[in-house]
Structure formats: structure tokens, C-alpha cells
Amino acid sequence: MEIVHLLRAVTVELGLHSARFAQRNGMHPTDVRALIALMDARRAGEEMTAGRLGAELGLNSAGTTALVDRLERAGQVRRVRGERDRRRVVIEVEERAVELGQAFFGPLIERSLELLRGYDERQLTAIRGFLGGVREAAAEGRE
Question: Whole-number mean pLDDT of the chain?
């Protein structure tokens, strides 16, 4: 249980860190989650529609539209035609948002990478397996 409690404490701290970013930048915490989802999709080479974004964040259609409108007005995202299907509208994160996130979260990311460099490949495989399993278990509640 010690590791489960430590994971919970890490989750709380990361949530507080994210909330500080949101507050400092005049955002709602959901805005930050949306930007993370958009950056993850971009990193994976996937297009993100408003419907998919809403599903990932647990928002209804009206809430998703309000979110995307708010982020677009703030210059954080843009609506564009899909590359694979020009009839679809996809949401893309603006470089400005990426740079803003990097400036705030970069030191935490670098510290995390520094810690991970202390583990051998076998240990990293175990860490990946554990975190992936916890993520899957948490995601089961979404369905």
C-alpha cells in the first residue's frame, strides 16, 4: 500500500502543479487537460476532432464547443481542415501554447528525466508496466 499511497500523493502534486499553470495563465484546469490531449495527439501523428477531444475529456458537445472556442480566442488552438479527410474539422494546438507549457513544465520534465536516467532498462520496463497498468485501471471507469 505504500507505493499506492505514494502514487496518490504524486497524482495530487501533479494536479496542483497543473492548477498553478492554469491559474497563472488565466485558464480553466480543463483547458490544460485539453492542451495535453492535443499535444499527445500531435506527438502520435493523429488528428483530433472536437468529438474525440470531448470524449477524451468527458465533455458533452456543448461543453466541448465552449472549450475549443475559449482556447481559440486565447490563441492556444486553431480549427483546420483534416489532412486525411478535408470535410472534417480538426483541432490543432498552436506553437504558442506548446512554448508556454514547455516554459512552465519543462523543469519538472527535465527533473523527471534526470531521475529516470538512474534506472537500468529492466527497471524502466517495470516502471512502464506499472504506470501503464494503473492508467488502464483508471481508464476503465470512463467506460
Answer: 94
